[in-house]
Amino acid sequence: xxxxxxLAAALSAACLCAAPAAADQPKEQKPAKEEPKPAGEGGxxxxxxxCNAEASKKQLKGExxxxxxxxxLKG
Length: 75
Known about the structure:
single chain; mainly alpha; about 70% helix; elongated
């Protein structure tokens, strides 16, 4: 249950941080520097799954897990 809450909190924070930046951009956007990846290659959801699996494998809990997940999701 605690893991579900942490994952939900991390996803909510990521969505809230990205929303204001999207609202400030003009309607005509310049092309992104990086080409978008096709669905299924990378992406935040897949990164979350991979980081979560690695944290579980390392048996991280509490503050150590939170710090690991934060670092892992940024990279």
